[in-house]
Specification:
Length: 270
């Protein structure tokens, strides 16, 4: 919990909503990561939002976690993406336009791409401009990979380590764009946040592992930062140099997200 106080002397907290659906399986890890970083979390089924029982606006962060939403029927993340695009478009558009954070991890990345929230040249793109498709290996890959962070439009991520090691777990993680123009715009707008390095495990264009929208407040990646928030989650943890509180590489992402959301709650976000 964030420990600062507002002008009325009340303790301020950052509220995060973790959205699950049938097949989501990383919601509890995501809650754990956000809680360690200082947020308070609610986990809600997407149906509670679709029916209006839960609204997005009270939260500073909305996260679509990893898993296999609706069994990845049709294509990975497609069914949940259609629900967001067809039934929550206005609410999501207001949330993004307010500057608050939307985060997608693995299946959440697939959902945000296929709903039009990413690449996000507009608030919600009118057509799908990229996708995450079958890995070049033509198989599900579950392994630890290296990546490099990029200076991006998501400036709230500035100061993260220049290199990270995180686990991936996907069969459809190959990032491709609809045309060379889309890839050019992503680079021009500084919308790439992570690239696989030194190896590209799935064949993604330009080794892209994560992107943000043009504004920098919708962010998604295929690797799982919630699965490496303490060094003891790494299979070779005894060989990892100790850090304060024994944090793992993924913790820095969640720490940055919560810190940025805190500035939003204080009304001082850039």
């Amino acid at each position: 919990m964030i420990g600062t106080k507002n002008n009325n002397g009340q303790k301020e907290t950052v509220s995060a909503l973790v959205v699950r659906a049938a097949g989501t399986n990383c919601d509890q890890e995501t809650v754990h990561a956000l809680t360690l970083a200082g947020a308070t979390c609610d986990v809600k089924h997407v149906n509670e939002i679709l029916t209006g029982r839960i609204r997005l606006h009270p939260y500073q962060i909305v996260v679509f976690p990893g898993g296999f939403s609706y069994g990845d029927d049709i294509a990975a993340g497609k069914v949940l993406a259609n629900e967001l695009r067809l039934r929550l478009r206005d609410q999501l558009q207001r949330f993004v336009e307010s500057g608050k954070l939307v985060i997608g991890i693995c299946n959440g990345f697939q959902v945000l791409i296929k709903s039009g929230l990413l690449p996000g040249f507009d608030t919600i793109d009118s057509e799908q401009l990229a996708t995450l498709t079958l890995n070049d290996s033509a198989r599900f890959q579950c392994e630890w990979v290296g990546m490099a962070t990029e200076k991006s439009a998501a400036s709230w991520l500035d100061g993260m380590p220049s290199t990270l090691e995180l686990p991936i777990a996907h069969g459809e993680g190959k990032f491709i764009t609809a045309s060379p123009k889309v890839l050019t715009l992503l680079k021009k707008n500084r919308q790439v946040i992570l690239r696989y390095a030194p190896m590209n495990p799935n064949g993604s264009e330009a080794a892209i592992a994560g992107i943000c929208n043009a504004r920098g407040n919708v962010v998604a990646m295929m690797p799982h930062p919630e699965r490496f928030v303490t060094r003891f989650q790494h299979p070779n943890w005894p060989s990892i140099p100790a850090r304060p509180n024994d944090v793992g590489d993924g913790f820095f992402f969640w720490e940055k997200a919560v810190a940025h959301a805190k500035t939003l709650s204080q009304g001082v976000a850039r």
